[in-house]
Each structure stands twice: as C-alpha cells, then as structure tokens.
TrEMBL record:
Designated name of the protein: Peroxisomal membrane protein PEX16
Similarity section: Belongs to the peroxin-16 family.
GO BP terms, alphabetized: peroxisome organization
A Pfam family hit: Pex16
Protein's UniProt keywords contain S-adenosyl-L-methionine: no
PANTHER family xrefs: PEROXISOMAL MEMBRANE PROTEIN PEX16
Polar residues compositional bias, start-end: 105-116
Native species: Tauraco erythrolophus (Red-crested turaco)
Length: 264
C-alpha cells in the first residue's frame, strides 16, 4: 500500500473508533441537533474516504476494521538466540525415539516473554501464513462489483437522508436500507477467487442483516416484547444466566438507541 492509502485507512479507523464517543459527547453539550449534525458529518467523512479507497486506490472490498488488528503473539519476532542457533547450525528440536514427539531442545529455549507452546516450525508457518494473508492484494472489482460496493458505502448517507425526509417512525428508511444491503450482497455474490479477509467480510455483512430485528420501527413494533420475554424466561428458569440477561434487559434500550440508528 502506498503512503497516502495508509493515511486514509488510518483516518478511517480513527473515525470508526471515536464516532460513538463524539456523538454522545456532542449530544451532552449541544443537544439533539448537535448530535445529528456530528452523525451526518462523520458518516459523510467515512463515505468520502471509502469512495477514495475504492475508486482511486482500487482497494476492492473494504473490510471492517479497515486496518487489520495486530496479533502480537504471531507478529512477535523470533528470539535472538533462535537466530543465532539457526546460523550456527544447532538443532532447535528433538524427536523422541519411541514417541516420535517433537519437543524444543534446551539450547533453543527463548526467554519467558517470547516463549510459546508450539514448535519453532509451527510458529514460523503461522507467521508466514499470517504475512501472506495480510499482504494479499485485493481482488479486482468489475463494474458490477464496484457499483455494489459503492451502494454499501453510500447506504448510511441514504438512510440518514431518508430519516430526514420521512422521519424516524416511518418504515421507508428501514425498507430502503434493507433493499440496499441485500442488493449489494447479491451483486457481490458472483465474485469468485476472494481472499480470506474478503470472504470473512462478506460473511460479516450477511450476519449483520440480523441487526434489522433490532432496528426501529421493526424493533418497536415486533421484536422488543419478544426479545425481552425471551431474556426474562432465561433469567428466571436457567441457573446462572440471569447475571447476563438482567443487565442486558436494562441496557438494551440504550444500546438500541445509540448503535442501531444510522447503521453505518
């Protein structure tokens, strides 16, 4: 990736990390009007950054989060002693004569901070596999797939616009967003030879369709009573589950209001 593309990904990641905090802080200071203003500005900025990555830098299907989280255990470099042993030709492993079990030799045991339970070969294979996954280039998108990804990127803006036109209690924003989501996934379903991250992202988007059960007005009219009844039954009749379901019942209205309104 080029340096400008990395900067765009970094800013996009920062926006996704602080958007809820910015919304709640703005609502506390400037009220409901300020809250919706910051929501629109953040979603507009995210859409512009994603469209730049898609159309200018040909980033392909964009994953969430934009930057792959660092797995410190897998990214941890080999202990210097291991490198010295490799260069000096010492064996890092010992194979049992009767059990054929591979164990680490005492000469190549790393320090406690960098110690792991797998054999050196397993660690090197996992590191190389991880590096291949991260460095895999994005799958080139045709015209149909580019339109599908553009629909997914602009969907939050179209949903916010429909909320402003028809109001939060109308079914039209809910239906519009559902149609855009399903259309985008349908157009992307014909794409073959996706890498592992892109396949995981499409699975994530498909699973997130279940969020429509928690979004107004469907949640207010159909889901709320049934979900609360199910949580109450689990809390009353399943031992130990009440420690999780009772706080969930208390916080669900706040979560539904904050996390399920613009769907971006």
């Amino acid at each position: 990736q080029s340096l400008p593309q990395q900067k765009l990904l970094t800013w996009l990641s920062v926006l996704e990390c602080v958007e809820v905090f910015a919304e709640m802080g703005t609502a506390r200071v400037w009220g409901e009007m300020g809250r919706w203003t910051i929501i629109v500005l953040i979603q507009l900025a995210k859409a512009i950054l994603r469209l730049l990555l898609l159309l200018w830098y040909k980033a392909g299907i964009q994953t969430s989060p934009p930057i792959v989280p660092l797995n410190r255990e897998q990214q941890q470099p080999l202990h210097p002693q291991d490198t010295e042993d490799n260069s000096s030709g010492k064996d890092q492993t010992y194979v049992g004569k009767r059990s054929s079990r591979v164990v680490r030799s005492l000469q190549s045991t790393p320090s406690l901070q960098s110690r792991h339970w797998g054999s050196p070969q397993q660690r090197e294979e996992s590191q190389s596999r991880r590096a291949e996954e991260v460095n895999q280039p994005p799958t080139p998108l045709g015209l149909q797939e580019t339109i599908a990804e553009s629909i997914y990127i602009t969907r939050p803006l179209l949903h916010l616009l429909s909320l402003g036109v028809w109001g939060q209690r109308s079914w039209k924003p809910w239906l519009l967003s559902a149609v855009l989501d399903i259309s985008s996934l349908s157009l992307l379903s014909d794409l073959k030879d996706l890498n592992r991250r892109e396949r995981a992202e499409l699975r994530r988007r498909t699973i997130l369709l279940l969020y429509y059960l928690l979004r107004s007005p469907f949640y207010d009219r159909y889901s709320e009573d049934r979900i609360l009844l199910l949580l109450r039954l689990l809390a009353d009749y399943v031992p130990g589950v009440g420690f999780v379901t009772r706080p969930l019942m208390d916080y669900l209205p706040a979560w539904q209001k904050i996390y399920f309104y613009n769907w971006g």
